[in-house]
Amino acid sequence: MSESKFVKGMIVGAITGAGLSLLDRATREDVKYKLKNVSYDVKYYSKNREDLKLKIQETADKFQTVYNQFTQDAQYITGKVEEIKTLSPQVKTLVTDTKDAFVQSKEEYKTIVKNEEDDFEMPVLPEHVYDEKKFS
């Protein structure tokens, strides 16, 4: 019983809303114009059924073309996703190997630099280079 009230309330609300919107002059003119166009189209297509069939066929062809293109695109994307899935383990292995190589190289560079620092001795400059009179 409450469903019946709900549906009735929706219908009454829709009619009330439509009536209130028709209080605006521009809205009334627009509705009249659209109703005349629809009326003209109905009369025209009732007399020229072949034109209606052609228009419906053209619309159906457009939808079919869009559907076919969408299907092809979906298949292409699905193929690329599968390709990425198969490449992911290979790429992961490559990245891991590259990281390990860099870590190993880093350690080798540290030992090389440390050994060179140990071998490097600061040259001893003659005393006259440090003479305070030259700097003042």
Describe the structure.
This protein is an all-alpha fold. Helices cover 87% and strands 0% of the residues. It has four helices and no strands. α2 (25-47) crosses α3 (49-119). The longest helix has 71 residues, at 49-119.
Q: Main attributes?
A:
mainly alpha; 4 helices; 136 residues; YtxH domain-containing protein
Write the layout of secondary structure elements.
Elements lengths: L1 H20 L3 H23 L1 H71 L12 H4 L1
Helix pairs in contact: 2-3
Short description:
The protein is mainly alpha-helical.
Low-confidence stretches: none
**Major sheet size, sense and barrel closure:** none
* Count of extended strands: 0
Question: How confident overall, as mean pLDDT?
Answer: 83
Query: How far apart, in Å, are the first and last alpha carbons?
Result: 108 Å
Overall shape: elongated
**In which range does the helix fraction lie?**
over 70%
Radius of gyration: 42 Å
The SS-based structural class is mainly alpha
N-to-C SSE series?
HHHH
Binned strand content = under 5%
* Tally of DSSP helical segments: 4
Protein name: YtxH domain-containing protein
